[in-house]
Design goal:
The chain is of the alpha+beta class. It is built from 5 helices and 9 strands. This is SCO family protein.
Length: 206
């Protein structure tokens, strides 16, 4: 069963996202993409995303520039997550497959917020299970926090005396396009078909 976030976590998430609507305001550099959006973002789409340096599941150091040449569906989570992350990541993988059937090439990316437990081997096993083209990213705590901050992602480990601690985190997915950067958030209540339709619309109108 999907766990409820603590009141503190929920409040911080709401503050970081600029309110319940998490609305995306169309920037001038993204003219023509507004028809694909149903929501808007406080501060504009340009306020989300930015440079990062992480390590992929093969051990290679990568930056945001390595993904600038392709459409990317990005999600922040962790492999020990008992419920939300597997469901969201599997949904994203299904949407990517639906898009591939329609002739669109979108790369699914999973960024771990658990630098302590998500080793390269565990991350590689997780992403390969989810989708053969999925890329897993991790790094030091500072690197992960820098990336999360760029995408306005909240995460915090719950207090625990054992190794099976949980991590509260925001659950949006982020869609990026070449030449535009971040263009929209994907909510976790959207089905694979809805995600594929939305992403296809952005690609067609980019």
């Amino acid at each position: 069963m999907i766990r409820l976030y603590s009141l503190i976590a929920a409040g911080l998430i709401a503050a970081l996202l600029g309110g319940l609507g998490y609305m995306v305001m169309t920037g001038s550099q993204q003219a023509g993409l507004g028809q694909c959006r149903e929501t808007s973002i406080a501060g504009g789409a340009g306020s989300i995303g930015g440079p990062f340096e992480l390590v992929d599941h093969t051990g290679r150091t990568v930056t945001d520039a390595d993904f600038a040449d392709r459409p990317v569906l990005l999600y922040f989570g962790y492999t020990f997550c008992p419920d939300v992350c597997p469901l969201d990541t599997a949904r994203n993988a299904q949407a990517v497959d639906l898009l591939a059937e329609r002739g669109y090439d979108v790369t699914p990316v999973f960024v771990s917020v658990d630098h302590q437990r998500d080793t390269q081997d565990l991350l590689a096993e997780f992403v390969r299970f989810m989708h053969p083209e999925m890329i897993g990213l991790t790094g030091t705590e500072e690197q992960i926090r820098d990336a999360a901050r760029a995408y306005r992602v909240y995460f915090a480990a719950q207090e625990s005396d054992d190794e099976f601690f949980l991590i509260d985190h925001s659950t949006f997915s982020y869609f990026m396009l070449p030449g535009h950067g971040f263009v929209d958030v994907i909510r976790r209540d959207q089905s694979p078909e809805q995600v594929a339709d939305t992403l296809g619309c952005f690609i067609d109108n980019a």
